[in-house]
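Thread: Modeling a multi-component assembly for a lab meeting

Hi all, long-time lurker, first post. My supervisor asked me to bring a structural picture of a complex we are working on to next week's group meeting, and I have zero experience with this. I have the sequence lines for every component (734 residues in total). Could someone generate the structure of the whole assembly? Inputs are pasted exactly as I received them:
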Amino acid sequence: MTQPDPVLAPGLITRQVGPDNLETPFSALSGELTSPGAHYVRSHFPVPVLDAETFTLSVAGRVAHPLQLSLGDLQAMPAQTRRITMECAGNNRVYLPQKARGVQWELGGVSTADWTGVSLAAVLERAGVQPGALEVVLQGADRGEMTDPLPSGGEIHYARSLPLTLDLEDVLLAYEMNGAALPPQHGYPLRAIVPGWYGMAAVKWLNRLEVIDRPYGGYFQTVDYARWEGRGDLPPERVPLSAMHLKAQIARPAPREVVSLGRPYRVTGAAWCGQGTPQTVEVSIDGGQTWQPGRWTTPAQTAVWRLWELDWTPEQAGPHELLARAVSSEGEMQPAHHDPGRGSYEITHPIAISIVVSGADAAQENP
Amino acid sequence: MTQPDPVLAPGLITRQVGPDNLETPFSALSGELTSPGAHYVRSHFPVPVLDAETFTLSVAGRVAHPLQLSLGDLQAMPAQTRRITMECAGNNRVYLPQKARGVQWELGGVSTADWTGVSLAAVLERAGVQPGALEVVLQGADRGEMTDPLPSGGEIHYARSLPLTLDLEDVLLAYEMNGAALPPQHGYPLRAIVPGWYGMAAVKWLNRLEVIDRPYGGYFQTVDYARWEGRGDLPPERVPLSAMHLKAQIARPAPREVVSLGRPYRVTGAAWCGQGTPQTVEVSIDGGQTWQPGRWTTPAQTAVWRLWELDWTPEQAGPHELLARAVSSEGEMQPAHHDPGRGSYEITHPIAISIVVSGADAAQENP
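Re: Modeling a multi-component assembly
Sure thing. I ran the full set together rather than chain by chain. Output:
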C-alpha cells in the first residue's frame, strides 16, 4: 500500500503552509469524535513520503534484541483501540497577553480520534530493555532544519522521549485512525499516541525507537516544547512538557458571534485534562463576575474531552464576555492568569470569548 | 569597604550599553597580563550594588553544614593566586558566516588576569558535600529578565553549575584581581574563576552556592551557553558549554591595517586552549595557501594564553589575508570551518585578517 492522499475537511483554518499547520474550527464541535479530515494538523517539517510495504520500525539502543519490524509485524501483534483527545501544547497561543512566536492557534488546536495500534510496552518487551535504561526516544521520518528561536545546528529529525516509568501499556504505536489507515498528514503509516500528554509526544511517521540511559536533550524537548520549572531557590530549570493540564473551552458562541436578546441559546463546549477526568464545569456570561454550573453531555473518560452545555437566555443587549472553567477529579483547577514560566505553552487560564447580544431580533419578535 | 568605582581603560570597544559589554582592543596585546581596566567585560544584567562589609556567600543544598561566609571568613582561608586567560564563548561572533544574535565580539572577548581567592574545594569541604551530590550551582547577585532568544519566564539570577567531578581545587572564589579588590564590573566583591573554561563559568557577584543531585537545567546552560552534541544516531542534544577549545589569534596586523612593502613587520598574536597548552603555531600570509611556523615568546602555562610572533617582510603590494592556527599538547587542532552545532559559540576556525600592503612607503625609500 503506497502512501494515500491526504483527506482534509473543508473549514480547516490554515495557520501555516509548508509545513502545513491546520486548525480545527472549534465552533463546529458536535460530538466526541473529530473526523480524520477535520483533526487539527501540527507539522514541523514536510510530510515524508513513506510506503507501508517497505516501511520498518527500528528498535535500538539499550535493548537485548535490536529489532526491525515491518508494519505487518506490528499488525500481527495484539491490537488496541483507544479514543484520545490530543491538544497542541500551544493551543490558545493567539490569546496570550504578550504576543509569542510560534503557530498562532486560536481554540482549535485540539481534536479527538480513535486510534488503533500495538502498545509500546509490547514492542519494548520483544526488544528486551536492559538494566539502567531510563527513557525511550521516539523518532519520526520527517526532517529539516529549525532556525527559530534557536538554530538546530543543521537538519534534524523530529524526536521526543518518554520516561520508561510511564505506563507504556497505554502508549500506542498506531496504524489506524478512526478505523482506516492513517492519513499522510497524521503520520502514515505509524504514529505514537500518548494518552493524556500534549500532542508533541504523538510522534508522526514513527520509524525509530531508541532506548537510552539518560534524559534525552534533543531540540523538541529543550528549546521547543519545554518550560521553566522552579525547584527550590535556584533560577528555574528547563523541563520537557508532558501531561496536558486541565482546560474548559467554549465552542459556541464563537468569538464575535452575535446572539439574540431574549432568545434561548445553548452555550456548548468541552473540558479535558491529562490526569483524572473533568468533574465540574462552570460558565460565566459576565466576564467572570458570576458563574453557573454547566451540564455534562458525555461521560467522564480518561484522556478524552468531556462535552458540556448551558442553556442561556440573554437578558441584556450589548457586548458580553463568556468564560468557562473546570475542576478535575484530581482537584486540579485552571489558573486565573498565564504563568510566564510556561512560555508560549500550556495556556489554560480561562479565555474570554467576546460576543454581542443584539436587541434587533428580539425587537422584531415584539413589534 | 563599600563598592569601589569601576576602573575602565580608554580604548575599550563598546559592544552593548546597559548592561555593559566591553571588548578589549586585541591589537594592543603586548604581554601576558591585561590590566583590570582593559579586561573585557561581559554582563547580562546591571551591576548589583554590593557592600563587602555586609556581603555573605551562602552554601546550601546537599551539604552537611549549610554556611554563611563573610568576605572576612573567605579571606581567612588559605589563598591562591592564579594567572588565567578568560575568553567569552561568543568571541569572534562578528566573523560567523551566518549573522548570529548576541553580542558581536570581534577579536577582543579575551583577556588575562591574576586572580586571588580561596579554592571552591576548600569551601565545599567546610560545608561537607553529601553522598549523591552531582553538581554545584554558582549564583550571582545580578538579576533581570531574558527575552531573547527565549523568554526566561520572569526575573532570574545569573547562575551556572559545575560538575563535582571537576578538579575544584583549581576553581577559585576570587576577591582580588591583579592584586587589588575586584572592580565592580568584574564581580565585586567575589567572583568564580574556572581555569580553562569559557568565561560564562566565571560567575560574578557570586553570593550563593547550592549543591544539587541532578544536572542543572537553568537558562544559562540550556538556552544560552549551550550547544548541540551528537550521541549516536539520534538528533543532537543540548549540552552546556564548558572547556575552551584551542584557538590562535592574530593581534597585529589589526584588521584593515596598512603595512609597507619591503619593510620588516612583526606579526604578533596569542594562542590558548582549555586542556593542555598550545604547542605549535603557524601563520599564513596568503589566505591559507602556505604556512610558516610562529615563534613562542612566552612559556607554555596551563590556562594562560601563549604569545607568539613572526617576522615578515611584505614582498607584494595589494590585499592580503593573514591566518593563524595552532596545535595543542593534547593534539587538538582548530577546525577549518565553524561547526553549525556550536551555534554562535566556540568559534575557533582560523579567522582571516584582511590587510593591505602598500607600495607607497617602499617607493619613497628607493627614489
